[in-house]
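Hi team,

Filling in the usual template for the complex we talked about on Friday. All components are listed, including any nucleic acid strands or ligand strings, so the model treats them as one assembly.

SUBMITTER: L.P.
PURPOSE: interface mapping
COMPONENTS: two
RESIDUES: 751
SEQUENCES:
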Amino acid sequence: MLELKGVSKSYGQTVALRATDLAIEPGKTTVLIGPSGCGKSTILRLMIGLIRPDTGTVYIGGDELTAENALQVRRRLGYVIQEGGLFPHLTSSANVSLMSTHLRRPKQQVEDRIRELAELVQLPMDTLDRYPAQLSGGQRQRVSLMRALMLDPDVLLLDEPLGALDPMIRAGLQEDLKPIFQTLKKTVVMVTHDIGEAGFFADTIVLMREGRIVQCGTLDDLVKRSVEQFVTDFINAQRTLIQALEGSSG
Amino acid sequence: MRVLALAAGVFLALAGCSRQADVSVGSKAFTESVILGEIATHLAEDAGYSVEHINFPGTRLAWNALIAGDIDVYPDYTGTIIQETLFSENLKTDAEVNAALAAHGIRMSRPLGFENAYAIGMREKLAEQLGIRTISDLKRHPGLRLGFSSAFMERDDGWKPLRERYALPHQDVTGLEHALAYQALDSDSIQVTDLYLTDAERMLYDLRVLEDDLRYFPNYDAVWLYREDLETRAPEFVAALKSLEGKISESEMIAMNARTQIDKVAETKVAADFLAEELRVESEVIEETLAQRVWRYTLDHVFLVGWSLLAAILVSLPLGVLAARSSSAGQVILGIAGVIQTIPAIALLVVLISPLNELGFRGIGTPPALVALFLYSLLPIVRNTHAGLKDVSPQLVESASALGLSPWARLRLVELPIAARTILAGIKTAAVINVGFATLGGFIGAGGYGEPIFAGIRRADYSLILEGAIPAAALAILVQLTFELVERSVVPKGLRLKAEG
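RESULT (copied from the run log):
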């Protein structure tokens, strides 16, 4: 479905991504994880053609991604970013239908699709007439997801979709999102820095560090069969905090 | 398509101000020249020609317009022609002057009778006190405050060579509007100034003219300068102009200047009365009511502001977008727009005459006013469009790209609407500034509120100044309010919510 072959990217002296091969399994959820600046968001932006690789090739459904076909290819991909990236001058439904309207899809079809998606992401219909400034953070991410799903893309790319939400809302949305991904059977690529979130969503976790992939596998693989000390350190860094607290209270 | 139609409209607006009258008379914008221009205007009407009369803020503009054929005749002085207009040709005799003028297709009448030489003057009382009779006497009083008209400060036969000839030591020398010089003398903020021999204020303020003991100032005989082709196009008019040769004495001219300057009688009426008495020529002086006048100024003013602003929007928006897209283009575009803003209006108007003529438009009147206002409106709109687009957050631009919108669709559907408030603020700034700047239309015969304002300054008639200034201020406020209404419909509701919340 989605494949990177020998893809690298630098900004001036800074290497964002070393020459990397990565094949994303269709119909499954792949989570890219790692510390800040490890290159996980760069991979996502390369996949949707927002940036061009210095070397190597990105393949989408077998086709090579080029500057020429980028616009067409993007319509087969849905993209959600941290703060939602909703357009403040448009209502929620106008945000969702912007591209369909631009492509002159029939009005009825567009409305039906919006209703269907609102149900899917559990967003009340009256919220759709509001502007992003009038929505809560969680509602904004739901609208953003609707927008990404509007053209029924084959692939969903999510760049820290829950990163800006407070923990309670975040947990609630996590619970809602997982069944959605499972029902839709879409290829999902998600970026996060939270190992718990990765473990919750991922069929495959890709752990990255300083522009290269350290290990690919399930959470179980990473915990039990880590290929280097960094993997264990990374996982423990987030686990030990809770355990330390539990230890002190118990 | 709509953009094309608008552009065509702007072009037609320019083209629509091509010359309509048979005869076009020019004046320099001071009372005497305007009265002489009105005399010429009445004479042309009497000879059966349709005529227009345009006032220029300086000799250079009037001369350029005459050579370009934008006007046919204007009154000037022999000294000005020799010392300033054709200074580089170093002319001595009348024959040389006539030959030099002929090379430009211009003819000069014989003197009209009076001389309006420059002179240096001060208040009689102070001169008596200090014992100053001649210009040379000034040397003994280096502490005197000198104030000269801007024209005199700059002229090739003005202050600088005068100072050299007389070796004047004075340090405290300021430039000011000639019309304000007498009041400045009266309040003692200056003590010595340049004046014309026929100035009406000589009587009013009791001034002593200092003797030009080193014979610095040349003769300044008043003459008509007119285009050669006028003799075939309007022979009776030329004959009428020539009939005034030797007919206007210095005392008559002073009296006419005084009627306008001191009694506040309009130049056109003074000119008509003179002709009735001197040549038995009866001319019709059209008296407009205040409301009629203000309405006429308003139409002209709104015409200037509206079309120049429309053209500026059509040009600035794409330039602003280009500037936001490419930072190197941005630097060039914003740089040029900024430089244009610093060009003084008069310099711009002078520079515009010949390119406009090349393009087939008039170099005076409405076209240069429209072009100047258009140029001055560019910067605020370009700058705000650039800033507004640059302010759109990168996440939003990226989200729009990720949806698969083409750069053009992204600009139209996302970036411009989000930048709308800033862009509109730029247009509003341009419009309000434009209402003020459009008064410069009064400089070059484009009408508008500047017409009474400049006439009022010339005649020291404050009520006349207010006839232009009050409606101009009202229009600026109206424009401001209108834009606030427009903002409600143009700026998307979602963005206004954000600002409120």
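MY TAKE: The radius of gyration of chain B is 27 Å. Residues 84 and 260 of chain B are 27 Å apart (CA to CA).

Thanks, L.
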